[in-house]
Amino acid sequence: MAFVLSALLLASVASAQFETTASLRSVSAPIETAPSRTSEAPFSTETLSIPTPTSNPGEPCAQLAELVLDGDRRFPAELVHNCLNSVPVDKDGDSKLLDELKILWEWQSDGGWLKKTPDTWSNGALDIEKELDNIKSNLDKFESEYAVQMAIQNITIRSGNFHFNYRPDITRMFRFWRGVGVMAISEDGIKLPKLYTESDALAMASSDATKFSEIEQINGQDAWQYLESVANLEQYLDLDARMANVFTPSGGESYGAFEVQANYHGAETEIKFKNGSSATFQNYARFGTASAYARGDFNETSYWYDVLDGASLFDVFCQGNFTGDVVGNQFSNDKNTTSFEAPVAQKLDDRPVHTGKIRTPQHLRKRQTIPETYPEPIVEDTSEVVAGYFLEGQGYQDVAVLKVISFSPEEDTNGEEFQATVAEFLAQAKQEKKTKLVIDLRENGGGMIQLYLDLFKQLFPKDTPYSGQYWRAQEQFLGIGDAVSKIIDENKGSEYTKDLFAQSFYFWAYWVYKTGKGEYFKSWDDFNGPVELNGDSFTTLMQWSLDNVETNVLLSPGFNFFNDSSQNPPFEAKNIVMLTDGLCGSACAAFAENMKNLAGVKTVVVGGRPENKPMQGVAGSKGGQVSIAGQFPDRAKRLIAYSATANYENNLNNTKVKDLAELEQVLIRAGDERNRVQVKEHLRKGDDTGTPLEFVYEAADCKIFYTAKTWVDPSGLWAQTWDAFNDDKKCVEGSTKHESSISGGFKPFGTGEVKDEDLPKSTPTSQKPGQSGKPNSAGSIRVSVAAFALVIAVAISMM
Predict the structure, then answer these.
(1) Fold of 365-460+569-618+698-758
(2) Which of 201, 233, 338, 657 is an S-S bond match for 262, by CB 3.0 to 4.6 Å?
(3) pLDDT (0 to 100) of residue 329
């Protein structure tokens, strides 16, 4: 019997694409023609078929292979899940994999802080090494290889940090879909929102909203409770942001996590509406995406001839050909090599500049270009990530809007056009006498470090942005740094120069970084610390250099920072407001931190849970930098090769650097660009506790909700934002004046000089993390404590 989908979904499902190298827009199904469901109109009886196999009973992978070989590309979700769950546990391989992950994940910079979290942290403590050991000791109890890999992946999800990713082969083969999106819509932007299907929310913007019935239950549960279980499989710092990622993004042009699932959510989805009607949607699966450098892709028919059961599926797809090491083949085993050319993966993701088009995990369901439904911009870059607008209407004549949906312009690999677009917008705003500015950062998952720094400099030409960070000073990091430093010192005049090492080993090129006080480091010993914080060791706090010099490893070729301190700011800080949705992270979070703590700019946040409470404006990753995990074994191999010609090789024997170079299983299963670690923590200027910003709670100054009209029309949302910024009565009740917000008393550090007493210093192990005698070193809210881990475990068990 064929699986069917309601015609309500015909337009969106038939045209749905899941591409990681393009924005997730619906191309062939125009938004305005999407069917909707009202309380007066029943669902259509037209159907869209999902194929089912006709043979091979009892072997779900053989049944799935039959459909693939027949040319199908949409499959029953239950069949796909049963196939994946029939793959036998690779006990020997997984045992080795787990041991190797313990070595590789020492590079995760927040590992120590996750073990001992401050009171401001809502997700519960997480001991990464202990969790890996627990999985290893229970390998006999897992139902399948898929279950083992999902358990490992769950460790990264529980971190809440989207810079920390584990996406091995078997979890990447398919993505599960519902084919229906949901959205939370408020009557007036202040009252608590109600849940609607995406198509209803779209129709409500131009129709009588009373005709549409809200969602009351999903799969037999209270709708909001069910969505929380879905949200807790998303990788953001708090539940409000995770919930925001579940909803369909504004305008309905891309997909939320309710529709494109992070995990298997059952064979079907039943939605019951408050008016008593209901609808059932068959869940389905589509092929996922292999590495950009894979030898093939999961959807290539030729591979499926050999799939007869779960064991053969493992043999075909889990041997490194699809998600394996993208770096290893770049490494030369010739010990006489003196080439310091960066490997491909380093150029793509680890370097602070953006030189490729690889989509990282936080981009997989998030569009990274400005939607076509936005109004005509005054100016826009060709990559469609930054654009400027002028509001119209009474009371908004002097309001300009700068939309930055990403700091990663795909067609602008060195960032010059992004920079020029901002400059042109600011010039036109000045010419048109615009004095007020809304900076829309919704959906911004980060990007190029140099662009967020440059944007701040263009907005505040007389000020210098702050980029305080530190590395985790673990044995592997220090071992590589010691070797680099000694090879340079002992081989002066040879090919082993600082310039060469700054290219391939720039993490350890201390001479290109500045201290927290803005001075260049003079030695490796000054740089490496260690500073003891919260039971872990870190390097001395460092900053990126903003000098426009050839040796600046931060700058892309041809890019120079805006550097005209004679100019006045185009807008006064008191007349600027940031608009966020909780999803702002990485470079976006760093930009928002500078705007708040240096310039004193306030934030209005939209969305989140239906609560009369504050909400964080920034709850994406707040880490300083992310790298492809597979690069570190490659670096260790190259360093050992270089050491042989520099008479230093013996110093690396019997060290963790040697262990790192010998990793194998993890590079087979999860060695590509989707598997990443966060290598640096980002710190607040003036916070002497050294608490990473991801563990600092920061409420926005005001919260609002989407109405049907402002969800579809960004101009209306920008006007709503400006009104709320100027009048607390237009904010959600109870959302303003939290002590961590500027409106609640937070005192920005400002652009003044950093003194010794403002820098992190080693703390006694008995001191509580985040504890300081200074005000505003951290927020003081605690939400649901350690229940987060339990919620995820329950959610996964339900799927």
Answers:
(1) 2-enoyl-CoA Hydratase; Chain A, domain 1 (3.90.226)
(2) 233
(3) 43
